[in-house]
Amino acid sequence: MIYLDHAATTPVPRPVADAMYQVLTEQFGNPSSQYPLGREAKALVEEGRAVVAGALGCRPENLHFTSCGTESDNWAISAAVWQGRHTGRHIITTAVEHSAVLEPCKLLQQQGYEVTYLAPDKTGHVTAEQVAQALREDTVLVSMMLVNNETGCIFPVQEVARLLREKNSRALLHCDAVQGFLKVPCDPVGWGVDLMSLSAHKIGGPKGAGALYTAPALRNLRPLLPGGGQEGGLRSGTEATAQIAGFARAVVLRQENLAEKLRHMADIKAYCRERLLSIPGVVPVGQGEAPHILAVSLVGYPSANIVTDLGAKGICISAGSACHRGKASHVVSALHLDKKTAAGVIRVSFGPETTRADIDGLYQALLDHKNQRFPML
Ligand code: PLP
């Protein structure tokens, strides 16, 4: 198998699975229990929190574990609009956020909120200037992702944070950093971001684990799940100890020689780009800078067919976001490509494990697809 879909999810390295297995079978106590097995589980959760918080550069008490990036995004948005309920009902986000941000925004629109969706340019980027133009007195939330999951474009989150400060805006800044964490510079504390979402399974951790950073200045945060009082009373529910241990172990592993891993991914991406663009009819899509995501189009060849065809040969890539399952991607639509280019968009994404031989396999399979199939008219 050639796995080139690391933006969808990543393989769990053995040490991460081992750490989880040990928690599941031996250190399985409930962190709320008052005997040693419970206290050991509680210590594991707090060690995990310290590790993930350390990697993000924040204090452990400002990091709350959740079940996934989607949950973190939903929580951030609902907490932010609650926080700003006396300020107004205007939200700014981008047209190319993940559905985990766009769908809660749509629900808020049904409740009377006004949402401005910033459109990307042809390269896939949005600017802080666009935020400045859209900002109003009654803006309560700006939600901007760090790295777009389909184009790999890096968004100017640091600049937007500075802009909000300069304008004395009361809007909170949320950043979905699910695709950015441990891939590109990410510093919520230094930048002055209020809320930041993470997910474990994009960096070699298990599915079912995420985190939300909340700035120390955010007081009386609205709890996501009222209940038994876990996660500082903000997100009740017995802690997913194995997932948290796996998340933390994945962070530790990923951080080992991180610069080298990122250089490797960037090299692989450059190699992949060069090889795929050498196929007549393949064009670049957007100009994403993140080291792990490359979008191209095999113009006129429907991407769903490419993905199925390559999948049958054991090559895993994605037609835009894996979350859209065949539906036309809103990110591709927002780039205003011509119909045939839009139809053929595929996303190839890399991890530290990806080799040049994987790329050669993809190249050959794409070439074969092109030679064996007919383009749309
Ligand atoms: N945000 C972005 C940018 C993503 O790419 C994803 C997953 O693909 C998510 C949020 C959702 O994360 P999770 O799968 O952990 O819910």
Automatic annotation (TrEMBL):
Phylogenetic placement of the source organism: Bacteria, Bacillati, Bacillota, Clostridia, Eubacteriales
Cofactor: pyridoxal 5'-phosphate
PANTHER family per record: CYSTEINE DESULFURASE (PTHR11601:SF34), CYSTEINE DESULFURYLASE FAMILY MEMBER (PTHR11601)
The EC number(s) this enzyme carries: 2.8.1.7
Record bears the keyword Iron-sulfur: yes
Family in the record: Belongs to the class-V pyridoxal-phosphate-dependent aminotransferase family. NifS/IscS subfamily.
Keywords, in A-Z order: Iron, Iron-sulfur, Metal-binding, Pyridoxal phosphate, Transferase
InterPro entries assigned: Aminotrans_V_dom, Aminotrans_V_PyrdxlP_BS, Cysteine_dSase, PyrdxlP-dep_Trfase, PyrdxlP-dep_Trfase_major, PyrdxlP-dep_Trfase_small
Top-level taxon of origin: Bacteria
Name by which UniProt lists this protein: cysteine desulfurase
